[in-house]
């Protein structure tokens, strides 16, 4: 996928690529602060980087859960991040009309896991000509993602990648089956969504839990089995984040993780 992004740096480094940013756009200053730090680190370790931030969260536990600071306001912030640092950006879309809207501001359209079988949504994303990343549903086998990829390529868009984000394990846990990564690489580049794989959804409180203490473990394993990219949500203070704070990586811990992952990548090449 990254070969189609003209504004991505370190494309020829042979390193994994990184998708990282806050779960949701909370404001311009925070988005720029996070992007600036991650750009600094990815330049240091020669890692191709795509900034991620949701312009709107549609899949929330409760009706009073935070969803957006404003759709167009958030998209404008994503555009500013991309222009400020000359990097590609990505956001998730939930409705067919969001595809054309978000495509005016970002470089990669992400399809959420719960919606990856929605044919009309995938075709709408593909028809924008943007890169499309498909989150594997927690309920889907790796082999079934071949058909989701085909929906994009059959719409005359080869710019597609798959994001692994764990499989439902009971009602409140997720497990990554690393056997699926080489399987899905037969269909498209594979990105391991480390932080969402460590969510603990469907808690009785109505607030999703998580295991950020296992981020390094899961990420190292993903690189070791050949994941093309890593997806990490990060925030300066996860405890105050407006979405997914329980499973995010604190921003000041990112450098140590990227350094270790780069070493793992070098070891398997």
List keywords for this structure.
alpha/beta, TIM Barrel, 18% strand, transferase, 3-deoxy-8-phosphooctulonate synthase, EC 2.5.1.55, 3-deoxy-8-phosphooctulonate synthase activity, cytoplasm
Task: Give a verbal description of the structure.
- This protein is α/β, with parallel strands linked by helices and 269 residues long.
- It has one domain: TIM Barrel.
- Helices cover 34% and strands 18% of the residues.
- It is built from 9 helices and 13 strands.
- Helix 3 packs parallel to helix 4 (119-127).
- The protein starts with 16 loop residues before the first strand and ends with a helix.
- The model has no long low-confidence stretch (mean pLDDT 93).
Topology (SSEs and partners):
Blueprint: E1 17-21, H1 28-44, E2 49-52, H2 71-85, E3 89-92, H3 96-103, E4 108-111, H4 119-127, E5 131-135, H5 145-153, E6 160-164, E7 167-168, E8 174-175, H6 180-184, E9 190-193, H7 194-197, E10 199-200, E11 209-210, H8 215-224, E12 229-235, E13 249-250, H9 254-268
Parallel strand pairs: 1-2, 1-12, 2-3, 3-4, 4-5, 5-6, 6-9, 9-12, 12-13
Antiparallel strand pairs: 7-8, 10-11
Condensed summary:
The protein has helices at residues 28-44, 71-85, 96-103, 119-127, 145-153, 180-184, 194-197, 215-224, 254-268, and strands at residues 17-21, 49-52, 89-92, 108-111, 131-135, 160-164, 167-168, 174-175, 190-193, 199-200, 209-210, 229-235, 249-250.
């Amino acid at each position: 996928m990254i070969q189609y992004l003209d504004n991505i740096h370190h494309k020829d480094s042979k390193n994994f690529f990184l998708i990282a940013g806050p779960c949701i756009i909370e404001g311009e200053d925070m988005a720029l602060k996070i992007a600036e730090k991650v750009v600094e680190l990815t330049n240091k370790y020669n890692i191709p980087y795509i900034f991620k931030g949701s312009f709107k969260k549609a899949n929330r536990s409760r009706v009073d859960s935070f969803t957006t600071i404003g759709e167009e306001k958030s998209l404008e912030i994503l555009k500013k991040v991309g222009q400020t640092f000359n990097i590609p950006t990505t956001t998730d879309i939930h409705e067919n009309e969001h595809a054309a809207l978000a495509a005016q501001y970002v470089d990669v359209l992400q399809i959420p896991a719960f919606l990856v079988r929605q044919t009309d949504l995938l075709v709408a994303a593909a028809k924008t000509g943007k890169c499309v990343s498909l989150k594997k549903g927690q309920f889907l086998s790796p082999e079934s993602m071949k058909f989701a990829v085909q929906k994009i390529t059959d719409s005359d868009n080869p710019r597609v990648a798959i994001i692994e984000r764990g499989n439902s394990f009971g009602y409140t846990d997720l497990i990554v089956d690393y056997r699926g990564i080489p399987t899905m690489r037969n269909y498209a580049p594979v990105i391991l969504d480390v932080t969402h794989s460590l969510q603990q959804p469907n808690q009785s409180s109505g607030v999703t839990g998580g295991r950020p203490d296992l981020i390094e473990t899961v990420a190292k394993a993903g690189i070791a089995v050949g994941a093309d990219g890593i997806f990490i949500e990060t925030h300066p203070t996860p405890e105050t984040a407006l979405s997914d704070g329980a499973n995010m990586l604190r921003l000041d811990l990112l450098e140590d993780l990227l350094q270790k992952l780069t070493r793992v990548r070098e070891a398997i090449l």
